[in-house]
């Protein structure tokens, strides 16, 4: 049984397309667990369209609790031997679950499997394909700064139960924490297959609250270092610096960097001669 886990908050305009992509799977032994984080849009109306299907289970937070808590609840209700989170504004390709199931069956020691994906615009028009990202020998997800493998990620529930589980008190950072936890209890396998369509939205969490996301990512990185007996300053701060540098290297930032070059040069001269800047 494969548990497709969906943490939804106000994605009523997209979630039908998301659910239909599960129904289109060539692997049919699945369940859908939806935990709604007190949505205020038309999400309930969409759920009602699937009320007669016993494979869909819907739960509600009494108040808005945030994505990590909501995903933690998804995992509490999941009954599948395999699980995978599907964002409520994205879709999976028809062979996504069968590819994951087949790959997991090859090795009991595999804890987590990631794959390639399509990056799409807001209307789900494909813009590009992700690369085939693998962690180099001798590195881990924690230590390899350049690695960001999701979506689509699946994992064995038996392996997840060996971890401390998601910290439901964290607001964000759930994707990072899940990967860090799962690589501590088993192997990480990467599929060179496209399984997922990721919708880029201008008001997405990663774009709209990027610095808040990075703050919580550093928290889960720090916790992972402490679990592994590593110095957090060697990894969590490096991760933060790398991510911020990447975020800043936009076209606007590069243009501003060029325009401000003369001012930086003047400041350097002033400091060199101990003059007041």
Task: Walk me through the structure.
Strands 1, 2, 3, 4, 5, 6, 7, 8 and 9 form a 9-stranded mixed β-sheet that branches. Strand 1, helix 1 (15-23) and strand 2 (30-36) form a beta-alpha-beta unit. With 277 residues, the chain is an alpha/beta fold. The chain contains 11 helices and 9 strands.
List its salient traits.
11 helices; 277 residues; alpha/beta
Structure class? alpha/beta
The total of beta strands comes to: 9
Number of contiguous helices: 11
- The secondary-structure element order is EHEHEHEEHEEEHHEHHHHH
Q: Can you tell me the overall shape?
A: globular
Beta-strand percent range: 15-25%
Low-confidence stretches: none
Oligomer: single chain
Helical amount among residues, as a percent range? 40-55%
Q: How far is the first residue's CA from the last residue's CA?
A: 66 Å
Q: What is the radius of gyration computed over CA atoms, rounded to a whole number of angstroms? A: 21 Å
Overall average residue pLDDT: 87
Q: Please outline the major beta sheet.
A: 9 strands, mixed
Indicate the topology.
Layout: E1 2-8, H1 15-23, E2 30-36, H2 43-48, E3 56-60, H3 67-77, E4 82-85, E5 91-92, H4 96-105, E6 110-120, E7 126-129, E8 153-156, H5 157-160, H6 174-183, E9 187-199, H7 205-208, H8 210-228, H9 232-248, H10 251-259, H11 261-272
Helix pairs in contact: 6-8, 8-9
Structure at a glance:
It contains eleven helices and nine strands. With 277 residues, it is α/β, with parallel strands linked by helices.
């Amino acid at each position: 049984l494969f548990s497709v886990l969906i943490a939804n908050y106000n994605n009523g305009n997209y979630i039908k397309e998301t659910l239909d992509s599960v129904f289109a799977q060539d692997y049919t032994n699945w369940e859908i667990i939806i935990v709604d984080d007190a949505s205020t849009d038309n999400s309930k109306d969409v759920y009602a369209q699937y009320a007669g299907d016993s494979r869909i289970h819907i739960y509600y937070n009494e108040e808005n609790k945030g994505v990590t808590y909501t995903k933690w609840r998804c995992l509490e209700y999941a009954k599948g031997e395999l699980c995978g989170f599907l964002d409520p504004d994205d879709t999976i390709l028809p062979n996504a679950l069968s590819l994951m199931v087949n790959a997991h069956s090859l090795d009991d020691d595999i804890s987590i499997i990631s794959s390639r994906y399509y990056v799409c615009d807001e209307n789900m028009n494909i813009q590009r394909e992700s690369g085939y990202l693998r962690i180099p020998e001798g590195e881990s997800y924690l230590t390899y700064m350049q690695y960001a493998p999701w979506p689509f990620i699946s994992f064995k529930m038996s392996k997840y139960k060996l971890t401390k589980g998601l910290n439901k008190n964290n607001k964000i950072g759930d994707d990072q924490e899940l990967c860090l936890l799962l690589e501590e209890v088993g192997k990480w396998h990467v599929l060179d297959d496209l399984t997922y369509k990721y919708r880029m939205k201008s008001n997405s969490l990663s774009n709209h609250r990027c610095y808040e996301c990075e703050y919580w990512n550093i928290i889960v990185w720090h916790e992972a270092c402490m679990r592994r007996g590593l110095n957090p300053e060697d990894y969590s701060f490096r991760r933060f610096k790398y991510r911020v540098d990447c975020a800043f290297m936009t076209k606007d930032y590069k243009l501003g960097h060029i325009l401000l070059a003369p001012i930086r040069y003047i400041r350097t001269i002033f400091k060199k001669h101990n003059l007041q800047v």
